[in-house]
Amino acid sequence: MERGSGLLLHITSLPGSPLVGDLGPSAHEFLEILRDAGQRYWQVLPLSPTAPEHDNSPYSGLSAFAGNPIMVSPQLLANEGLLAADELASLPRGEPNRVDYGLAYEHRMRLLRLAFSRFKPSGDYDRFLDRNSWWLEDYALYVSLREHFKGSDWSSWPEGLRRRDRGEMQAWREKLKERIELEHFIQYEFFSQWSSLRAHARRLGIRIIGDIPIYVSYDSADVWSNPRIFKLGRDLRPTYVSGVPPDYFSRTGQLWNTPVYDWESLRRERYSWWIRRFAHASELFDAVRLDHFRGFAAYWEVPAGEKTAVNGRWARGPGEDLFRRVMREVPRLQLIAEDLGFITPDVVQLRDRLGLPGLKVLQFAWDGNPGNPYKPHNYGRNFVVYTGTHDNNTIVGWFFHEASPRARREAMNYMGLRDAREINWAFIRLAMMSVADVSIFPVQDVLGLGPEARMNTPGTVGNNWRWRLESFDGLRRAARRLRDMTRAYGR
Length: 491
Description:
Belongs to the disproportionating enzyme family. The chain has helices at 25-36, 74-79, 85-89, 101-118, 123-148, 159-162, 166-175, 177-203, 221-225, 263-268, 272-282, 294-297, 320-329, 345-354, 395-401, 405-415, 423-433, 443-446, 473-488; strands at residues 4-8, 41-43, 207-212, 240-244, 254-259, 287-290, 298-303, 313-316, 334-337, 358-361, 383-386, 438-442. With 491 residues, it is an alpha/beta fold.
């Protein structure tokens, strides 16, 4: 990747629109701010449709391919003549710095239905349906059925639907025809709006970094429509689920409970599902972060029904075989290995053989060990360095509320600081001056926000993914300082 820096801000966290950030004017304004601040990258989280049953996590989406309906901009629909000004004004405002997913979904869907009632299909629309039918038909039926069955996942549906009986599915397609056509329209609008945003980014010389979670939720169109590529039993329930083993941070490990892949079945199919996933991502992003990269070398699988991850086992991933095929089929997409957590030599070797950039997180550097791989003097060039990720506290939150006194002293001494009044900028400078090709900062760290602005706390539910930027005022004030630092360090 070209030497540069950028900001991490998810679409839902953008200001402007009522209830939740979207792909409208505010997203385009953010691109202009990135340019003014001298930034070359914008990193987002997965764009997948989310569900309250999964804490609205973008890493537990209902599809690996579809876009989130709440990100469709009502303002851009109005610009198309599909909504009226008074209909836009009818949206409740909500809290300015928190996403209200329930209200956002309810009111966005109401406006989307109105817009669809006025929509006149065009040649572009027909081409979109034809080009994306390989995933869109199953997904549109899935969400329509899920809505009909009151949000329950496919394991509780009638047997004919669970097993995808052709006659049964066709009957339900007829029964839910209007809802399916609405979903076609929603996805068309999402990808049209995203395409416009990406074109704007290209004009400004800004590259967008996306995110591909390694696993998909059992409650997803992907598992329902492709059961053969997952380790499922005859009852179509998972036989093994994902997680990570016990370690220093957790005596029982982490149990993620998503189905794991049947990599042998995928290999026999020449990894066609994964190739399509990467090809689809290449149409949306310039680069993608591969979440839980270590799982491609070896992954921890736990017998379904276990209460913890203790009784799991290591299983071989697809390794280089998958990625050599991906690189041949989708050569333009830059891959980034999220190589955090329990990393063994085989993971590092796979990353290096493929020539992929790895990740460095400055919050992990302060353990008293000069050889700590997260300390900048130990970096190579082919890395992306973060002050923190979406799973970390903000720098201010971490430094003043989580870091030990020893870690704070070590960090201050390393950076030559006498006080911590601008600790966020000190960490940004440390990342900027490193040899790592790319440095990325959550917007919260640029603004010096505290733990109230944290995006996600792993292992918890109920208050994640909700943080939202109130306005761009603080970023505009910080733009010049960020630009000057960027220039000083050749980014």
